[in-house]
Write a structure and sequence with these properties.
mainly alpha, Protein containing Tetratricopeptide repeat (TPR) domain, two-stranded parallel ribbon, 85% helix, TPR-like_helical_dom_sf, 685 residues, single chain, TPR repeat, repeat, elongated, 2 strands, TPR_rpt
Length: 685
């Protein structure tokens, strides 16, 4: 934009007040406004820190140092979109003319002084400014499209962002479409110029490709955008191979933007391929100059994170291991080094390399403790994560004596944090209490587990009341944990009350979202069923088993491979029904059992004989002669199958089973004697 145009639309204000819109940077970077303002403050502080050294470098004709310092400030200014600062530092970075350097450094520090008094204007005020600017630029664009296209479309983009904030979507869409049309027109013009004179017009053409791709994305035309991005990448890759030094910056920038675009579209394989190309380049930079250590390690983290998003944890490990080697080569033992070790240990855990995970956690913990003691506020989150992770790793190895002291330390830390800021720390505090309770239960230290479970439950219950949808499963688990502990200290009435409460909650959820909570509901049914059985509440136990069977049938229909729990419950419930003389219901369950099970896959003959004898007995009691004839035929088929499968061992198995049934032959219970008689009739005669 020309100086004249800029001044024509600039608002009248106090000359000491600087108009800067951090909302644009917030939108571009996807960060909260508060954080952008914090970054601006950090940028001002960094500029002040560099000030004396920058002027001294210029005074002493040390242009290399001036270029390095200005480059650092330039990168931040670009990210924060402080355009006046970008222009000044770009000139300082590239110039070797002392007068030019001093002039632009002075201008830069004038901007810094003005930034200290940023005036934040309202969205309504900003819209009026941008609309006025758009009218001015529209006339300029009509006269010279190529010269004014960038400023014109950039103002459109800023106006769209503001309209979005006010929910004025029709206006935003219309401007997006107009912006796309302009970009397409510019691209067509630049393409003609590029074909005529590639050397002169390359930068303009690839820049137009980028801007047009962005415009396509804004109207959700992702295929068109991707095609232009890939076209641009092909040009830059070829240029980079011809002259790496000249084109590396632009090539890397495009690799980054395209990788981010693929990531947002969930095209992670393509994002990873581009990131790997970037990492090769940054590795070479690092090998030639250690100043590239930080950028290279950041790129390694990005690659690892992409692998993690695909749950390719084995591949995510290598970049993190490389990052640690680099830190150790450079003798760096700061917070990021510690976090990287913690992240790597977590990856080792995910791929079942538990011993390596524990060794790494044990290595990092003393370093982290020292850093935590020096700055508790800053390191508390990482420190508590490592404490909990190492405790969990010890727990998984049944090393409870090592796990518990770490979890107790974590609890003390979170107790203090909760006291200082209850709203922020409630969730984590409740979780740590619950985890320590679990550890105590493993050592049967129920008297210590119960108070923790009670406190954790009280917190979680309040969270559940405020947000039942997100807390329902954790609330039910907290009820189950405390209920189980009460059961273990023979407080069965209290245990049953809690388990019933949990079951009722899960039952309601299961009706509407069976997939979400089937496993939790099944566990609650099983736990409560065992408690009622221990109390000899057989009617309640039967009812719960029937519900349990319904859930298992639902899971079986989703995944027939997971059928054996369903089969076990089918047989168990059928047996119980038969004992209670509910023969008709028992027959239905036994019939379903034999319908589902594939005896070709079951070498153990007991899968056939035990339930078959019971089924036969029920049909006999009901006087179903036709069904008995069908069972006689089924028995012959399955006996033939097992004789073929077991060969000479078949008779050995029958003899073993006969010895077991012999205990029923002389039973006082006629029902038991019948089982023996059926076994002899079918399998011995």
């Amino acid at each position: 934009m020309s100086k004249k145009t800029s001044e024509a639309i600039k608002p009248q204000s106090d000359p000491d007040t600087y108009i800067y819109n951090p909302n644009i940077a917030a939108e571009e970077l996807g960060l909260p406004l508060d954080l952008i303002l914090e970054f601006v403050g950090d940028f001002i502080a960094k500029a002040e820190e560099f000030k004396d050294e920058l002027y001294r470098s210029i005074e002493e004709d040390d242009f290399e140092s001036a270029s390095i310092l200005s480059d650092k400030l330039l990168g931040v200014a670009k990210n924060l979109m402080i355009e006046d600062a970008v222009a000044s530092m770009k000139t300082v970075k590239e110039s070797k003319d002392k007068i030019v350097l001093v002039t632009h450094t002075d201008q830069f520090y004038e901007v810094i002084e003005k930034l200290k008094n940023i005036k934040l204007i309202s969205v309504d005020e900003e819209i009026l400014l941008q609309e006025e600017r758009l009218k001015t630029l529209e006339d300029s664009y009509a006269i010279d499209p190529l010269k004014w296209a960038d400023d014109y479309t950039k103002t459109m983009d800023e106006l769209v962002t503001l309209y979005d904030k006010q929910g004025r979507l029709d206006k935003a869409i219309a401007i997006h479409e107009k912006s796309l049309a302009i970009h397409k027109k510019s691209l067509a013009l630049y393409e003609v110029l590029y074909k005529k004179d590639p050397e002169k017009c390359t930068m303009d053409y690839i820049s137009s490709l980028r801007k047009t791709a962005i415009a396509y994305r804004r109207v959700n035309c992702f295929n068109e955008a991707n095609a232009l991005d890939e076209q641009r990448l092909a040009i830059l890759q070829e240029l980079y191979q011809i002259d790496p030094k000249k084109w590396e910056s632009e090539y890397l920038k495009h690799l980054t933007s395209l990788a981010i675009s693929f990531k947002r579209q969930n095209r992670l394989d393509e994002a990873i391929a581009l990131q790997e190309k970037k990492n090769v380049i940054y590795e070479e930079f690092y090998k030639t100059d250690s100043k590239w250590m930080m950028p290279y390690t950041m790129e390694l983290s990005t690659l690892s994170d992409l692998f993690k998003r695909q749950e390719r944890f084995d591949e995510a490990i290598a970049p993190q291991e490389k990052k640690i080697v680099i830190y150790e080569e450079c003798a760096i033992a700061d917070q990021d080094y510690v976090r990287t070790q913690s992240d790597l240990a977590d990856l080792y855990t995910k791929v079942n390399r538990q011993n390596e995970a524990i060794a790494l956690y044990e290595k990092v913990l003393p370093v982290l403790e020292e850093l935590y003691e020096a700055d508790p506020k800053k390191l508390v989150y990482t420190y508590s994560i490592v404490l909990n992770a190492l405790a969990d790793a010890y727990y998984n190895q049944k090393s409870f004596n090592k796990a518990i002291p770490l979890q107790e330390k974590s609890l003390r830390i979170h107790e203090e944090l909760y006291k200082t800021d209850p709203e922020h720390w409630t969730v984590v505090y409740a979780r740590v209490q619950n985890l320590l309770g679990v550890f105590y239960v493993e050592q049967e230290r129920f008297d210590e587990a119960i108070p923790l479970y009670e406190k954790s439950l009280a917190f979680i219950e309040e969270l559940y009341k405020k947000d039942s949808e997100n807390w329902v499963l954790r609330y039910s688990m907290a009820l189950n944990n405390l209920g189980y502990s009460y059961k273990c200290v023979n407080c069965l009435d209290e245990a049953i009350t809690l388990q019933e409460k949990s079951l009722n909650i899960l039952e309601e959820l299961y009706k509407t979202e069976p997939e979400k909570c089937a496993e939790y509901y099944l566990k609650a049914l099983t736990d409560l069923g065992k408690m009622h059985y221990d109390q000899k509440h057989f009617d309640e136990t039967m009812l719960l088993e029937e519900k349990r069977l319904e859930v298992l049938e639902y899971l079986y229909k989703i995944d027939p491979q997971e059928k054996y729990s369903y089969i076990d419950v089918l047989q168990g419930l059928a047996t119980t029904k038969a004992k209670n003389t509910n023969y008709t219901e028992a027959v239905q369950l036994f019939s379903k059992y034999f319908e589902i099970i594939d005896f070709h896959q079951k070498d153990e003959i007991i899968w056939f004989i035990y339930p078959f004898v019971k089924w036969y007995q029920c049909e006999q009691r009901l006087g179903n002669s036709i069904a008995i004839d069908d069972l006689d035929e089924l028995a012959l088929k399955l006996i033939a199958l097992y004789k073929e499968k077991l060969a000479e061992k078949y008779q050995e198995e029958i003899v073993k089973l006969h010895d077991g049934y012999m205990t029923l032959r002389d039973s006082e219970d006629a029902f038991d004697r019948e089982k023996y008689e059926i076994f002899v009739k079918i399998f011995l005669n």
